[in-house]
Amino acid sequence: MIDRSEVRAVSNTAVLVVAILIGTRGEAWAPGTLVGMGSPAARHPHPRITRTSVLIGPRDLDYVFEPSRLTVDVGTEVMWINRTAAPHTVTSMRVGAFDRTATPFHAMTLVFRKAGEFRYFCRYHPYMHGVIIVKP
Fold first, then answer.
1. CA angle (124, 98, 44) in 5-degree steps
2. Alpha-carbon torsion, ordered 72, 74, 76, 82, to 10 deg
3. In what order do the strands lie in the sheet with 99-102?
4. H or E element: which one contains 8?
5. Fewer CB near the terminus (10 Å): N or C of the chain?
6. What is the spatial distance between Cα 63 and Cα 87, in angstroms, rounded to a whole number?
7. What is the pLDDT, as a whole number, of residue 116?
8. Mean pLDDT of the chain
9. Nearest to 66, CA basis, from 54, 80, 79
10. Segments forming the whole domain that contains residue 17
11. Do 134 and 118 meet the contact criterion of CB atoms below 8 Å apart?
């Protein structure tokens, strides 16, 4: 027998996901924020963040960032998608700027809020290099 509370929980989750997808209508969103909780998204319901991605995957016998060079506008959210069974990092060549890990078959994101050239590499595979060029 099906427990009605489980069905209700699944239905509520599905409605929330659909509401989020319909509510954004392709507009930018701020990941990890809940509208109505005093967050920046609550004060500015449609922050202008564009998104793009970099794939982490195998090429020939090595791992690569693809594309290895990416030009974006200030405020762009870049998502690194790890398509391998190995962990990878996105580590700034400028010490302390950023150092994030993309675990196997998962993704991670960074939002670039300042113009400039941001070179990075993978600490686990130092031959992997990339650059994000952020235009004003």
1. 135
2. 60
3. 69-73, 129-135, 116-121, 88-92, 99-102
4. helix 4-24
5. N
6. 11
7. 97
8. 75
9. 54
10. 4-43
11. yes
Q: What is the pLDDT of residue 61?
A: 85
Q: Of 35-44, 45-54, 106-115, where does mean pLDDT reach its minimum?
A: 35-44
* CA–CA distance, 103 with 112 (Å, rounded to integer): 21
On whether both 63 and 87 belong to a single domain, the answer is yes
Residue 92 is part of a domain; what is its CATH number?
A: 2.60.40.420
pLDDT for residue 17 is more than 50:
no
- What is the four-CA torsion angle of 33, 34, 40, 43, rounded to 10 degrees? 160
CB neighbourhood size of 31 (10 A):
11
Q: Which two tokens mark 90?
A: 């996105």
Whole-angstrom distance between the N-terminal and C-terminal Cα of the chain? 59
